[in-house]
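Example S7 (structure tokens).
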């Protein structure tokens, strides 16, 4: 086998990406400390046609060299907005028909692979700080929580890895609506 060249990958142009239909899925980054994790969120959102990223609290915003290192330009194509207070944002998203899904290990979490995401439901996927997780108020605003099961010794996954897994789990059910 041979690896595909950039040309053979045949990706969308920046313009085509901007106008492409997106999934009914937004990401809410609640107080993310690492710019590399923020950049990774943009790259994930680009790959799976996520509608928008909300950067909340201490989460840094583009343009920034450290975000660019992992976003590799996706920070210029994926729609984003800064919201200082994630709880106010979540109330607003809820009013607009989004199901607020905390990606978090809680006493009420459902396992991600058991959760039947649907094509037509709008989802806001909330992820939390690398040390403290999703803040209490934002967690209270979540309709459900989803947990990625872990079988090793570590308590949690890297937040960007968690986003990659969860976005794919939802996107694989929604992408067919775009085709
Ligand atoms: N020790 C922290 C860990 C935070 S990890 C805590 O007490 O929460 C940073 C973020 O990654 C979490 O807020 C969550 O959004 C996500 N995350 C990490 N591992 C996860 C898992 N197994 N299931 C769901 N979300 C996870």
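Recovered sequence:
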């Amino acid at each position: 086998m041979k690896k595909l060249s950039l040309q053979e990958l045949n990706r969308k142009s920046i313009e085509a990406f901007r106008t492409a239909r997106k999934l009914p899925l937004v990401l809410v980054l609640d107080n993310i400390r690492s710019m590399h994790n923020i950049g990774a969120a943009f790259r994930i959102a680009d790959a799976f046609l996520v509608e928008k990223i909300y950067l909340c609290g201490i989460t840094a915003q583009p343009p920034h060299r450290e975000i660019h290192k992992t976003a590799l330009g996706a920070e210029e194509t994926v729609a984003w907005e800064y919201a200082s207070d994630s709880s106010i944002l979540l109330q607003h998203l809820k009013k607009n028909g989004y199901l607020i899904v905390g990606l978090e290990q809680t006493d009420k979490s459902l396992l991600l692979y058991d959760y039947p995401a649907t094509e037509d439901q709008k989802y806001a996927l909330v992820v939390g700080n690398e040390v403290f997780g999703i803040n209490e108020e934002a967690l209270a605003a979540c309709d459900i929580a989803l947990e990625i099961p872990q079988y090793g010794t570590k308590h949690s996954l890297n937040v960007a890895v968690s986003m990659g897994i969860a976005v794919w789990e939802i996107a694989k059910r929604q992408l067919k609506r775009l085709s």
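Notes on this example. DSSP finds seven helices and seven strands in the chain.
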